[in-house]
Amino acid sequence: MHELSLCRAVADVVTSHAERRDVTRVTVQVGHLRQVVPDTLVFCWKMVTDGTELAGCELAVEHVPAVGVCRSCGARNELDEPVLRCAACGGRDVVLVSGEELLVASMDLATSD
Predict the structure, then answer these.
(1) What pLDDT sits at residue 41?
(2) Could you report the per-residue pLDDT of 9-21, keeping only the tens digit for each?
(3) Structural domain tally of the chain?
(4) Alpha helices in 1-113 (DSSP H)
């Protein structure tokens, strides 16, 4: 289950950028081709953050579709399968422009009273 190590890495990034401020929510973007199970990622997040300064912080997972651009005809296509073929012309000279991301997109900080 590599989601556990991914959550540890995300928690490290968030902790270093939060600078001891309370974080209420972290949003990550996960590409369609990344081979990450979102529900498992959320489950592992709770395991990784329990008992830490991130305890109770919500992990939101945003799906990023796999998108390719055909070099032959210029069409931009969303890809459901990891087969890089242009939906417009059937060409195989396709450049992947999204779908492999695993990014910490944002983190919400608690407001001070």
Answers:
(1) 96
(2) 999 999 999 988 9
(3) 1
(4) 2-18, 38-49
